[in-house]
């Protein structure tokens, strides 16, 4: 299992930018255009930094090595963040986008139907969720995604839980499938915008 790390402010922003500037190709647009200011992605980067910062404060980040080629942020419903952490994260995210824009983004995520996370929560099923996975540009395509995802598997296996993830890119979906996750649903959020739900059962 990979080790948990604490990121610097610069590292948090670097990983947020890696995630925000993903190339979807011609057939998809992901969720990126729904964030305010597009094609400028500053607000999206700030939104992601808000999430990463909270995970950083509450020990939710694993890294591939001391070189931090890649990171993964996990949440575990059997060991949830304290209420104050969730409040801080939502507050930071809303401030990053503007409160009205934040509300609109939440509605767009819900437009394609219930997420796998909501389905599991409604059924009172416990799970480990991959909240964010990012590999620095110079290390992409070199096998760093696998140990990150396998760490999620190890964390979940210790508790006897499934791992779930949702991604807005078909190529990311295929990479998760290659590592051992199963695609269980696709939600259409808009033209050329999709969310793919995957699970790896315990």
UniProtKB/TrEMBL annotation:
Residues 111-164 form the N-acetyltransferase domain. Pfam families: Acetyltransf_1. InterPro entries: Acyl_CoA_acyltransferase (IPR016181), GNAT_dom (IPR000182). It comes from the Bacteria. GO terms for molecular function: acyltransferase activity, transferring groups other than amino-acyl groups. This is N-acetyltransferase domain-containing protein. The lineage of its organism: Bacteria, Bacillati, Bacillota, Clostridia, Lachnospirales.
